[in-house]
Amino acid sequence: MDSADPQLNRFLQQLQAETQRQKFTEQVHTLTGRCWDVCFADYRPPSKMDGKTQTCIQNCVNRMIDASNFMVEHLSKMNGGHV
User: Fold this and answer.
1) Where in the chain are disulfide-linked cysteines found?
2) Which one of 4, 35, 76, 77 is CB 3.0 to 4.6 Å from 60, fit for a cystine?
3) Calpha distance 20→26 (Å, rounded)
4) Residue 68 CB-half CA count within 13 A
5) Architecture of domain 6-78
6) Are 2 and 9 in contact (CB under 8 A)?
7) Domain coordinates of the chain in residue numbers?
């Protein structure tokens, strides 16, 4: 980047941050699809969830939260503390 044009630098940083947000959103959608595939293997949820399915969903959501927190922390470090 050309340090002589701070407005261009700011724009490029914002563009990079938005691209990273989009990638993160895509990853969340991918993980959601995977959780669905794992917890509802037959692609249709039962009329009433059993304990096994509830545990599966809970574990999957917890892993998604862990992944989300990791990604936010990683992006924050990459952006010098600004997400």
Assistant:
1) 35-60, 39-56
2) 35
3) 10
4) 13
5) Orthogonal Bundle (1.10)
6) yes
7) 6-78
The pLDDT assigned to 32 comes to: 78
Q: Which long-range contacts (CB under 8 A, 24 or more apart) does 6-13 make?
A: 13/79
Token pair belonging to 35: 């959780």
Residue 15: its pLDDT value, please?
A: 93
**What is the chain's length?**
83
Its pTM stands at: 0.51
Q: Using the Cα atoms of residue 47, residue 49, residue 53 and residue 54 in order, give the sign of their dihedral.
A: positive
Q: How far is CA 9 from CA 21, 52, 71, in A?
A: 18, 51, 24
> Could you report the per-residue pLDDT of 3-60, keeping only the tens digit for each?
578 999 999 999 999 998 998 888 778 877 888 888 887 766 667 778 888 899 889 9
Whole-number pLDDT of residue 82 = 58
pLDDT at 3: 58
